[in-house]
Write a structure and sequence with these properties.
The structure is a single chain. It is rod-shaped and about 130 Å long. The protein folds into 2 domains: 167 residues, Helix Hairpins (Orthogonal Bundle); 105 residues, no CATH class. It is built from 7 helices and 4 strands. Helix 1 packs antiparallel against helix 2. The C terminus is likely disordered. Helix content is 72%, strand content 5%. Strand 1 and strand 2 form a beta hairpin. By secondary structure, it is mostly helical.
Length: 285
């Protein structure tokens, strides 16, 4: 198989692998969309339980206050009736004090009861509102789960289709080259094969030595960029012809240290991984 056919296969494989990476990432991330909604629902239920406990405590306190109010009212009324049968000043003063104390206690209990009843009413309204919100979230979550299940099934079918395409394209490609391409595509946002423009790699924008660029142009072997590890190929462009032989501009690999520092300041340049640097050496089909 001639090198142009191999490169065409690699380009086709690159497109398939890039699509597979996207689909696999979507399948992996799909449950995360539910986890956020499930966490929200869990917080709502937890808050509802805590508020329900508070609701029960307030209701019990109201019942106790009503009992205390009844006792205070009964004590006051009893003392008031006893006024009709008193015969001495001392008895009058004692009953008057009992009536006053019972009345004060009655007023205090009544005020606290009114306050607790307002709290009880607010809690009751909050619980009803939260019950509706929880029901809505549960319905939405159920619908989302059903929809997501359909989406995941569709993505799995798409993944199977892409895998079949991958197997059809792969014959004739060196397994080691295929492995390297897969790893490069994963680490380089889906781009593992790039053209050279003059003596510049369009993947990392680093200047390549003229001799190295000419080897890419000859196209009789798989050549990896020594900086970003992407597979390089020559794209015919008449304006580039002279640039391949511009030794003054290109220099050699040993002359690129200063340029790398300058280029990284300009566009963040791609860092050279030592392991990928080894891959940057020429690999023959």
């Amino acid at each position: 198989m001639v090198m142009t056919e191999v490169l065409d296969k690699l380009k086709a494989l690159q497109e398939i692998l890039a699509q597979k990476n996207v689909v696999e990432a979507n399948i992996k991330d799909a449950p995360k969309l539910l986890s956020t909604q499930e966490e929200l629902l869990s917080r709502l239920k937890k808050g509802y339980i805590e508020k329900s406990e508070q609701y029960d405590k307030v209701r019990q306190h109201i019942a106790e206050l009503k009992t205390q109010l009844f006792e205070a009212e009964t004590s006051r009324e009893k003392s008031e009736k006893a006024m009709d049968s008193i015969s001495t000043q001392r008895e009058y003063e004692a009953l008057d004090k009992e009536i006053k104390d019972a009345g004060d206690r009655e007023q205090l209990v009544r005020k606290e009861l009114q306050r607790e009843e307002r709290v009880f009413q607010d809690l009751d309204e909050d619980l009803k509102r939260e019950e509706g919100l929880i029901k809505q979230q549960e319905d939405e979550l159920g619908e989302r789960k059903a929809k997501l299940s359909v989406e995941i099934n569709a993505m799995n079918k798409e993944l199977t289709s892409l895998t079949n395409k991958e197997e059809k394209v792969s014959p004739g490609i060196n397994p080691e080259t295929r492995f390297k391409l897969e790893r490069i595509i994963r680490s380089k946002q889906g781009v593992g094969i790039v053209a050279i423009h003059g003596n510049v790699c369009t993947g990392c924008h680093m200047i390549l030595p003229a001799q190295f660029a000419n080897e890419v142009r000859v196209g009789d072997k798989i050549v990896y960029c020594p900086y970003c590890s992407r597979i390089l190929y020559y794209l015919e462009n008449s304006e580039d012809d002279g640039e391949f032989f511009n030794d003054e501009d290109a220099g050699s690999l040993s002359d690129l240290d200063d340029f790398m520092d300058e280029d990284e300041e300009d566009d963040g340049g791609d860092e050279v991984d030592e392991e990928e640097g080894d891959e940057g050496k020429m690999d023959y089909e």
